[in-house]
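Same chain as my last thread, 208 residues:
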Amino acid sequence: MARITGPVCRLCRRDGLKLFLKGTRCDTPKCAIERRDTAPGMHQFRRGKQTDYATHLREKQKVKHYYGVLERQFRGYYDRAARSKGNTGSTLMTLLERRLDNIVHRLGFGSSRAQARQLVAHGHVTVNGRRVDVPSYLVRVGDVIRVKNRAKSLQFVQSNLSENRRELPDFLSLIEGGIPEGRVMRLPEAEDISIPVQTQLIIELCSK
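reply #2:
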């Protein structure tokens, strides 16, 4: 299972905005982009104006880093979006937002997408009563995402829910009872994406 294993704070500095790759740490003074709001590397102050290609590439890399996907997987999402009806950029972002690890994070079960990915991969989450351990699983309307009824799973998720209060998007609902569960009320749309994205730049780059 491919994943980003390097220092993730460098990714935020490179993209020039908080990607919340370290969960609650990103909201504290320890956040790297708060302390050094410059690109990583020795010669960041000598760099000239970005080319058009660099601008397009930076936008694509930002989305890849935010959702924790690598190039081959991202290309698969783009190809699927390009074959679908409607706006390719909006469809691409909807596919990424429907990933199970992203939904688990947006519900608050994991403090970051990396932690949510681990929760899914280790079998702490069920979808419609069935164990799903594939982080890239695409949820559908009406799906119920529930924490596994196991002491260790419940304790970990309930701790995250109490410590990491974040705004719940409109396309999800959450019940925080004895066994926390969320439901997909509708498919996510462009306004549900929580970072600023110029999808047209990504489509122009990938279509070449």
